[in-house]
Design brief:
3 helices; alpha+beta; single chain; four-stranded mixed beta sheet
Length: about 150
């Protein structure tokens, strides 16, 4: 990694986010997703602030992330006001190249404390109507947990 940074000729050190973006562009992964969970333990609530950045030269027309919250025993939890457990961030607006779009998921209340969040899938459609799915092996690369 040091050789790559030196060859860029940058006069200032890169942040971890900048390094991650360079890596993703280099391996052909088109997005960077930052997720900041917030919770109110007393109320057993969960809220997710999500920032999605398009790293490509092609607009993204539809974008979706599917999440699940689980308890300490890794059992999937269903929010009190829902019939199904999935939490979805869905962006239907165009995400232009090199731009960021924010999404808020929740707040959701649970009957018991949630312990972890599992991203099931990330999918998006480019402007040319080609649908892409980030496979499970690459999810950790495109997601930054804040």
């Amino acid at each position: 990694m040091c050789l790559f940074l030196l060859s860029c000729g940058s006069s200032r050190p890169k942040t971890n986010v900048e390094e991650r973006k360079d890596y993703l562009r280099g391996v052909g992964l088109p997005i960077l997703v930052s997720i900041q969970p917030r919770h109110n333990r007393d109320k057993k609530e969960l809220q997710l602030f999500i920032k999605t950045e398009n790293l490509t030269k092609i607009p993204i027309s539809k974008f979706q992330i599917l999440f699940f919250a689980s308890d300490g025993n890794r059992q999937i939890l269903i929010p009190e006001e829902s019939k199904t457990p999935e939490l979805i961030c869905s962006i239907r607006k165009k995400i232009q190249p090199h731009s960021i779009h924010k999404c808020l998921v929740g707040p959701f209340a649970y009957s018991q404390l949630w312990n972890s969040i599992h991203v099931q899938s990330i999918s998006f459609t480019t402007e040319d109507e080609v649908r892409h799915v980030i496979d499970e092996d690459d999810l950790n690369d495109v997601i930054l947990w804040l």
